[in-house]
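hey m, so remember when u said the tokens were messed up on ur end? i reran from scratch. heres the input so u can diff it against urs
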Amino acid sequence: MGYAMSRRRQIYEGKAKILYEGPEPGTIIQYFKDDATAFNGEKRSTISGKGVLNNRISEHLFLLLGRIGIPTHFIKRLNMREQLVREVEILPIEVVIRNVVAGSLAKRLGLEEGTALNRTIIEFYYKNDKLGDPMITAEHIAAFGWATEDELHDIEELSVRINDFLQGLFAGINIRLVDFKLEFGRLWDGEFSRVVLADEISPDGCRLWDSDTNEKLDKDRFRRDLGGEVEAYQEVARRLRILPEDGTPQVLNLETHRKAKAKSKE
């Protein structure tokens, strides 16, 4: 690890990342792990190289969002697995933006997965693993003081802008942005704070489908035992032009994984 991690204080370890104190006050080093979890930690595994890909993809997307005026905690990528970010007070809210029916929305409402929504839906969830991250409303957020009215307004406005930008970006590389998760934090400047985009944006927290085939290029490949997780993440990175075109592009070969899976069941 960079920045002499072994001598630095670990602040927090989550499912996919470890946070260490940064080299300067007000900074944190975010380390991306290869660990993969699903169903609130009930399913666990290791996907070799996932952390490296998520680090690169998230860096790329945060830089692009910063250029269009989205405030973020991102400062710079340090190496293959680490980012330097601003220290923020993470709000206990997960924001899920849905453009297409999928996942829990399909299950909850008995809808067919893949159905396009007439309008984008923004949902809120309370960040609490022990409770299974329950769905909440703006009323809950206000009643329990998880965010102020102004902060919630900023979160909603930023979420709409981020969704508009990312939908266009992914459409340009033949990927359908089905839904994705965002987290926000308070960036303090003395007695005042502002809401900024935090955490990461990667295939771990997005549903990304190939626009032509609807093949999944995201963590659902792990959740649903489809195989080819690394190849899917590599394909997203390749289309974003993060991975070099060296004549041997890592294109997702789903047929290979289907045959391997079928053979393993024989």
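this time it looks ok to me. The mean pLDDT is 90. if urs says something different then somethings off w ur setup not the seq
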